[in-house]
Amino acid sequence: MLQKIYLVRHGETRWSQSGQHSGVTEVQLTEPGEDAARKLGARLRELSLAHVLTSPRERARRTCELAGLGAAAEVDPDLAEWDYGDDEGRRSVEILSARPGWNLFRDGCPQGETPVGVAARADRMLARIRTMTGNVALFTHGHFGRVLGARWIGLPVIEAQHFLLGPACLGVLGYEHERADRPVLVRWNVAAGLVLVEAGEPGLGDAPALKVRAIDRWENEGGEIPPAGSPSGAPVAKPSGAAGNTP
């Protein structure tokens, strides 16, 4: 069976709560952020994980620790959040006031990382993971995690603007029909307590209930369910001109 990658965003911090961009700044988890990390850990520990990697930032390492996987974790600098340069600590509304039309995934940040640089880092991370045997858990950040999800399925960085990833939520990266040439997003933006496995796998959950909860969550966060007969049959995102949720 081909590997799955469980991509985890760290729990809530003061800055993620206020909407401030936190790249290199060390910001501790809030109490709710710690609680959510513990709940997520209860699910992750049900899985068979061969490798655990974490960002060097304290908020990611603490999330990994509270999830019960700290002892097995290896720190990898490539999992660090986007370096926001001059935009560190600023909110999107402040940045847009100074630079109307700004989009992180297209424009990057002055004195910080460019989208090309972040894409190269994400590709390097994914190339490393593909050399590993067994399932992998990654503890990372909001914007960089979204780039990892987009790059896993071959999309350019700009498309990561459509991939919301909340605090203490995760995405599951895998393959369709056990084919290595068909990478897919098995799950995305899954909150603590929801089902992480497919039917027939160890730790089976209630898949129909998961679908209902996932649709409810999508609608609550601004998505739309397409009309009957639409080509996709899956929720689609509303257009957005800005960078999305903050790290």
Keywords summarizing the entry:
alpha/beta, Rossmann fold, 247 residues, 6 strands, globular, 8 helices
Q: SS-based structural class?
A: alpha/beta
Number of domains: 1
Roughly how many Å apart are the termini? 33 Å
Strand order of the largest sheet: 3-2-4-1-5-6
Q: Which CATH class is shown?
A: Alpha Beta
The geometry reads as globular
In which range does the helix fraction lie?
25-40%
Beta-strand residue percentage: 5-15%
Give the low-confidence spans. Answer: 199-245
Q: How do the SSEs run, as a string of H and E?
A: EHHEHEHHHEHEEH
Average per-residue pLDDT, rounded, comes to: 84
Figure out the total of helices. Answer: 8
- Overall CATH architecture: 3-Layer(aba) Sandwich
Beta strand count: 6
Our Rg estimate from Cα atoms comes to 17 Å
> What summary fits the major beta sheet?
6 strands, mixed
The CATH fourth-level homologous superfamily: Phosphoglycerate mutase-like
CATH topology: Rossmann fold
Task: Walk me through the topology.
Layout: E1 5-9, H1 14-18, H2 31-44, E2 51-54, H3 58-66, E3 73-75, H4 92-98, H5 104-107, H6 115-130, E4 136-140, H7 142-152, E5 170-175, E6 183-190, H8 207-220
Parallel strand pairs: 1-4, 2-3, 2-4
Antiparallel strand pairs: 1-5, 5-6
Concise account of the structure shown:
This protein has 247 residues and is an alpha/beta fold. The chain has eight helices and six strands, in the order βααβαβαααβαββα.
